[in-house]
């Protein structure tokens, strides 16, 4: 009896595409219906096999490049949940099914975390080995990289700890000599050869097997999490090719990182595992909860920062983030970090290569250079976004964009040729950041620390307090300045290539180089002018007052913040990288300054700029709508447009309905009582109508082109010789969102953002006037910003 009442409830939120189809007339009228002529007397009784007693396969699903209906998806999930709860007391099997359903969320994020951690470890190990392959090979064990090769050697010296007999450069293998111009030229040639080989293989694999595997992936993931459908973007092929080509792209030496693409890899894992659980595979809104948790796991393994990963998902990528998703994101990040720690890809018992700890406190006066680094980060971010978007737009609009393989080869060749002579650009960018972050100590043999060995010597401060910096430091500073210019230029042209390319590591490298230069300059200033009032109070002669590595870390955070406009999550990620609570204030000061300076030139981060460049229908929650327009100014049809395509509730035939569908490109149609009254009944989606008609023709006899289509509860009165009518009430949304024509657009935009609507109907005194879609709002916002409305829409 309870089930009958539920089925007959006219106030169920959605009867289209859900698990329960509330057909009121079924219990009352049985399986017969009467066709009568004008007099109203029953002339014949026909058996009706009402195919709508079960959900129609395919109804409630979405086409590629369409936006999901969040409200409908949430209603479907509530209905599914109610059904499971009502049945769980019937038997032990139903109770087990309800437990499985409750735990499936935790199970899917656990599997996602395990897969993300394992793939991240695999990528780290493979990228390190292939990166060292450009310089030489380990004869004792081919699968060892340079560092691992020399671990067991007893013939290394402290000064040249990276040289051992087991590791042979290509010049030693081919020419038999390790020194001299010939060996340098041979090593140079092999470096370029391997770089071009890796880049060529990466771009070919992407182009042939998985075009979606290129780029960072974060702009598309933000768009997908906002409700957009991009079929195949998170599929098996994309995952496989992205994992392989990410290793190749990083090893090729291009100015890119693997951290952004790791978020894409983790989201692919989350999407694939969600298909194992009907709760997520059949509901697009629930699937996006898994993807939010997956993106947290991706950042967790990219930076070894589980909490930073959760905050990144919340602040940067997620559109809908309920509390249970926060817990599951935290758990996924925890599992992923645990797996990566178990693999230990870098051999340092840390989750990242450039983990560092500082022991010197910072002083209040140092906030000035920290804020200046924040200004530099904001200026760099604004410059990079404009330059990179201009280049990507040029690539889209010219013939150059038709040759992605040639472009990758060209950029890889220039990068390799220019990078090899400079040791700071030749080495892997993660290793460069590690060297720049590292505090100079007695165990450091870096060129950046040469002067320290004398400054900190037993007689440095007593015999000759004005000990000059070593010549090696000056050459290192010149090389760092050249590396900074090289990285700035190459990163602009590299981000957006048709290979997996992240932006986190190149941005951090640029900031770390600038920060290290400022840090060394400050250190020398404090050393030579310790009697200045700025240093006198807190910097004693002979003490280590300034930590250049800390400046590098602050600069890295500032530059990454300038490009992405992240704040809270970025500070936490960098804090987790360093393990030092006392440096949070310098980081916060630099990151906030960077954001303010960047926002002064434009409020968009790089990911939002690429979303707009690609024309994805993404309503950014950070963007304020400040105009005073009304709903009637934005709705369609405009005065110059043809009338709005509508369906009447009970006087269309199948042929007329198919004609309306074929003649228009609308994704849905308002259903009205009649053309005269224009009173709104509901809203039906184009895809659902098409599927329902095809399904009825397969399963029902007597459905013809002149069959009457009705969206009402009861069949209309028809002549006796009429063909069987087609009932489409179950696919009708009986409660579409409506606003009046005088509603301010500010409120309409807020409704679209917070409820994730696809469309909203505009009425006046209950009569239908028009429709506003998500694309209409985006076009209107572009128009208000003096942009071409059509140029920003996805095609």
From TrEMBL:
Domain of life where this protein originates: Eukaryota
Ranges that cross the membrane: 103-123, 191-213, 233-254, 261-278, 290-314, 363-385, 405-424, 476-497, 509-530, 550-575
Residue span(s) of domain CBS: 635-701, 732-790
Recorded GO CC terms: early endosome membrane; Golgi apparatus; late endosome membrane; lysosomal membrane; plasma membrane; synaptic vesicle
Keyword Transmembrane appears in the UniProt entry: yes
Membrane topology annotation: Multi-pass membrane protein
Major place of residence: membrane
Pfam families associated with the record: CBS, Voltage_CLC
Protein family: Belongs to the chloride channel (TC 2.A.49) family. ClC-3/CLCN3 subfamily.
Record function comment: Strongly outwardly rectifying, electrogenic H(+)/Cl(-)exchanger which mediates the exchange of chloride ions against protons. The CLC channel family contains both chloride channels and proton-coupled anion transporters that exchange chloride or another anion for protons. The presence of conserved gating glutamate residues is typical for family members that function as antiporters.
Name of the protein: Chloride channel protein
């Amino acid at each position: 009896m309870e089930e009958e009442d539920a089925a007959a409830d006219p106030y169920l939120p959605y009867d289209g595409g859900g698990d329960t189809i509330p057909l009121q007339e079924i219990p009352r009228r049985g399986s017969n219906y009467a066709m009568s002529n004008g007099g109203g007397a029953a002339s014949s009784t026909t058996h009706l096999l009402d195919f709508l007693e079960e959900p129609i396969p395919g109804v409630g699903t979405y086409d590629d490049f369409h936006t999901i209906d969040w409200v409908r998806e949430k209603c479907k999930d509530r209905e599914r949940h109610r059904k499971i709860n009502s049945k769980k007391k019937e038997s032990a099997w139903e109770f087990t099914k309800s437990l499985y359903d409750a735990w499936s969320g935790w199970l899917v994020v656990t599997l996602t975390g395990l897969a993300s951690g394992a793939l991240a470890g695999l990528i780290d190990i493979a990228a390190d080995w292939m990166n060292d392959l450009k310089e030489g090979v380990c004869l004792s064990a081919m699968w060892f990289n340079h560092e691992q090769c020399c671990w067991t050697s007893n013939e290394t010296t402290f000064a040249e700890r990276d040289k051992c007999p087991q590791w042979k450069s290509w010049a030693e293998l081919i020419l038999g000599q390790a020194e001299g111009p010939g060996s340098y030229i041979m090593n140079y040639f092999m470096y370029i050869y391997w770089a071009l080989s890796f880049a060529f293989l990466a771009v070919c694999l992407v182009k042939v097997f998985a075009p979606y595997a290129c780029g960072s992936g974060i702009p598309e993931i933000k768009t997908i999490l906002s409700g957009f459908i991009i079929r195949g973007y998170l599929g098996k092929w994309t995952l496989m090719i992205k994992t392989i080509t990410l290793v190749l792209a990083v090893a090729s030496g291009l100015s890119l990182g693997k951290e952004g693409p790791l978020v894409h890899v983790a989201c692919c894992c989350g999407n694939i595992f969600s298909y194992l659980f009907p709760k997520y595979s059949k509901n697009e809104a629930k699937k996006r909860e898994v993807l939010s948790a997956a993106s947290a796991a991706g950042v967790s393994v990219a930076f070894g920062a589980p909490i930073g990963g959760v905050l990144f998902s919340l602040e940067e990528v997620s559109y809908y983030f309920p509390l249970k998703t926060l817990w599951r994101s935290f758990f996924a990040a925890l599992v992923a970090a645990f797996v990566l720690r178990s693999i230990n890809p870098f051999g340092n018992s840390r989750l990242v290569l450039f983990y560092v700890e500082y022991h010197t406190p910072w002083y209040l006066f140092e906030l000035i250079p920290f804020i200046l680094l924040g200004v530099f980060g904001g200026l760099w971010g604004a410059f990079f976004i404009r330059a990179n978007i201009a280049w990507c737009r040029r690539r889209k609009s010219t013939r150059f964009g038709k040759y992605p393989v040639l472009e990758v080869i060209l950029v890889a060749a220039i990068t390799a040729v220019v990078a090899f002579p400079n040791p700071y650009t030749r080495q892997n960018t993660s290793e460069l950041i590690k060297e720049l972050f590292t505090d100079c100590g007695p165990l450091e043999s870096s060129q950046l620390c040469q002067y320290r060995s004398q400054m900190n010597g037993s007689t440095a401060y007593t015999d000759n307090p004005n000990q000059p910096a070593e010549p090696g430091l000056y050459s290192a500073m010149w090389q760092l300045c050249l590396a900074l210019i090289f990285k700035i230029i190459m990163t602009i042209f590299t981000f957006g290539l048709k290979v997996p390319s992240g932006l986190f590591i190149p941005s951090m490298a640029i900031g770390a180089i600038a920060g290290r230069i400022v840090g060394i300059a400050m250190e020398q200033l404090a050393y030579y002018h310790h009697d200045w009032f700025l240093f006198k109070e807190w910097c004693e002669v002979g003490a280590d007052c300034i930590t250049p590595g800390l400046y590098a870390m602050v600069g890295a955070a500032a530059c990454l913040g300038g490009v992405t406009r992240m704040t809270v999550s970025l500070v936490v990620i960098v804090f987790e990288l360093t393990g030092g609570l006392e440096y949070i204030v310098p980081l916060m000061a630099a990151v906030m300054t960077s954001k303010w300076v960047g926002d002064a030139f434009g409020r968009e981060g790089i990911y939002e700029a690429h979303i707009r460049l690609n024309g994805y229908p993404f309503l950014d929650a950070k963007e304020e709508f400040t105009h005073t327009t009304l709903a009637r100014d934005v709705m369609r049809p405009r005065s110059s447009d043809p009338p709005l395509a509508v369906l009447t509730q009970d006087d269309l035939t199948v042929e007329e309905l198919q004609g309306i569908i074929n003649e228009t490109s609308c994704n849905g149609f308002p259903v009205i009582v009649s053309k005269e009254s224009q009173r709104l009944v509901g809203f039906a989606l184009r895809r659902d109508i098409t599927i329902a008609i095809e399904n009825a023709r397969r399963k029902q006899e007597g459905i013809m082109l002149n069959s009457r289509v009705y969206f009402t509860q009861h069949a209309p009165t028809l002549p006796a010789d009429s063909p069987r009518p087609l009932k489409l009430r179950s696919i009708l949304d009986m409660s579409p969102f409506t606003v009046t024509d005088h509603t301010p657009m500010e409120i309409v935009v807020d409704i679209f953002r917070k409820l994730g609507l696809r469309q909203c109907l505009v009425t006046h005194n209950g009569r239908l006037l028009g429709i506003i879609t998500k694309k209409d709002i985006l076009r209107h916002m572009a128009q208000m910003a003096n942009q071409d409305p059509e140029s920003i829409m996805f095609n």
